[in-house]
UniProtKB/TrEMBL annotation:
Belongs to the thiolase-like superfamily. Thiolase family. InterPro entries: Thiolase (IPR002155), Thiolase-like (IPR016039), Thiolase_AS (IPR020610), Thiolase_C (IPR020617), Thiolase_CS (IPR020613), Thiolase_N (IPR020616). Residues 4-250 form the Thiolase N-terminal domain. Its EC number is 2.3.1.16. It is an enzyme of class 2 (transferase). The keyword Acyltransferase applies. Keywords: Acyltransferase, Transferase. This is Acetyl-CoA acyltransferase. Residues 260-381 form the Thiolase C-terminal domain. GO terms for molecular function: acetyl-CoA C-acyltransferase activity. It holds the Pfam family Thiolase_N.
Amino acid sequence: MREVVIVAAVRTAIGRSKGALKNVRADDLAADVLQEVVQRAGIDKGQVEDVIFGCVTQTAEQGANIARTALLMAGFPETVPGVTIDRQCGSSQQAMHFAAQAILAGDMEIVIAGGVESMSRVPMFSNMMDAHKGNRLQENYTIIHQGLSAEKMAQQWQLSQKQLNAYAYDSHRRALAAIEAGHFKQEIMPVTVTQEDGSVALFAEDEGPRAETTVDILNGLKTVFQEDGVITAGNASQMSDGASAVVVMSLDKAQELGIRPLAKIVTRVVVGSDPTLMLTGPIEATRRALERSGLTIEDIDTYEVNEAFAPVPLAWLHEIGADPAKLNPDGGAIALGHPLGATGTKLLTTMLYRMERENLRFGLLAICEGMGMANATIIEKL
């Protein structure tokens, strides 16, 4: 039976919206990580059989199949195809699933999966222009903003603003500790940026975490989506810029090329969930992934659950009965940012390097997605 492994992973540092990466085009970011990840894998660009990239707001500089344009910019042979997909916040995680499935089917041996998003240069929802949700959809479902979905989650799981803010503070604290310890240095590739004064600098450290943040500051922030609600800018993910990529191949091909895999992809799951609550999908996706793999949550050594809003990981912890110490130990999107199309393989990259650093066996990644979906992946360190 064929097995699929990840042999290389890389990401850019994550820039705040309108921050360090605001002058860098998304296709340049994507081309940069594509060049870097093949170098880390030790393969030739011509050996890659497909490039699958996630990108949510596919318009303007991110339109016209950015996967294909970026790989051409990165110097890949014109014979290498590329495709861009939108599974909302889990787009690059889904890209990796599609890559694994192509390899398991025997159609391909080496695929790059990844994602990119410049929320500075291509604002979220700009691809929708002035369009509204169709009447037939709204007749069947109550379609609301994700922020209101987060409010509904907080109500359902009886999560107070103080609980959410305490979690958000911990996200910043963990992220700052990880940066201080140098945990992200190997996984990040520096990006050359032109600054306002025309000088050139290397951007190589996530700029989202705020050392000045305190629980009191977070408790003092106004709610954003509901006047009497609990969701603020401080306990929601940051809008961000960044890119990430992984090289996926069959285990047989890795052995043939003499490449040591970082991890094996054990289980891939995607589910639909309530499109009104919208953000609860990681709970069911995790349950299915554990069931299919024959594992329990106690078998998993580390997990990344995307911090779209603080109620998401907190509700997940409650329902799964997971160990809070194993969840997002290097911080999450509340502190580090959430470049939509890039987040899946960005989180996977961080988890892979943590598993290597700490010699952990099993890791789980779960991400909630717009309109009520979620992906979950279980990987095993080899």
